[in-house]
Specification:
Oligomer: single chain
Structural class: alpha+beta
Distance between the termini: 74 Å
Number of strands: 3
Shape: elongated
Radius of gyration: 29 Å
Strand content: 25-35%
Number of helices: 5
Order of helices and strands: HHHEHEEH
């Protein structure tokens, strides 16, 4: 039998399927629903507040670069660009909400501080690597100028 996701469907169908008296089952479901809503409510002291203010789950950001291995040949217009992929360079992001203000209209205002920490064990390379890239706006400008004349 299909069990719906709304509270009324779940309660009525669960009561219908169980041989238990209806009163204790309905009371149990309402207590579970109340307990869940209290834990999920965003307010100081609630279980979810700490997770919202400072998420405990690590957030990783990975960057890849394309290193131009033959810049002299490219700038002399004698060679096509030859790129080598470098990375990933991995950083762990830490987020913290500060200056939290609970507004009278039921909203919350805050500022968020984001910090990034280099994760050398998750990185293929180091922060000392030198990467040569093309200046794309300059290349587009040069190509546009050359093709217009």
């Amino acid at each position: 039998m299909y069990v719906g996701l709304s509270d009324s469907n779940l309660t009525s169908e669960f009561v219908f399927l169980t041989p238990l008296p209806r009163g204790p089952v309905i009371l149990f479901l309402k207590m579970c629903s109340y307990s869940h809503s209290q834990r999920m409510m965003l307010q100081e002291g609630s279980e979810s507040y700490g997770y919202w203010k400072e998420p405990p789950v690590p957030i990783y950001i990975r960057f890849y670069f394309f290193n131009l291995t033959n810049p002299e040949g490219v700038w002399s217009l004698k060679e096509k660009p030859d790129f080598k992929e470098m990375g990933p360079y991995t950083f762990r992001e830490h987020r913290l909400k500060v200056n939290i203000t609970w507004n009278k209209n039921g909203t919350v205002s805050y500022q968020q501080i984001k910090s990034w920490y280099f994760e050398s064990d998750l990185t293929d390379g180091s922060l000392e690597d030198i990467v040569t890239t093309l200046n794309v706006p300059a290349v587009v400008s040069i190509v546009s100028t050359v093709t217009l004349h």
